[in-house]
Amino acid sequence: MSGRLAAPPRRRDDPEARRRDDPELRRQTHGTLDGDALAGIEPDLVVDALRTFCPEPVIRTQNRIRSLRPGEVLLLLADDAGVEVDIPAWCLSTGNEFLGLLKGEEAYRVFVRRA
Predict the structure, then answer these.
(1) Which of 41, 45, 54, 92 is labelled catalytic?
(2) What is the pTM of this model?
């Protein structure tokens, strides 16, 4: 025996386990497309939020996505790491689809489809 205590078994009604195992929640927070699919997207609109900080990337996304028709894709360029959490949360609250993000050396490329 290694001297380590075994973790208690997970209960079926464990809310943390439900959140982690919920495929719909995972899709909404991690995006609906993988990196290869994202790399092939030609966005309908590019929004530059480089050198800005929260909440500016979300505000620019919100203001500019209004000019798109449903189904069109917005690409947000940002270097604020907060977009990893803020944009999926914004999409969840507005009904827009968070497609995913690509992390580059100097910027994030965040893809959102207008609902």
Answers:
(1) 54
(2) 0.79
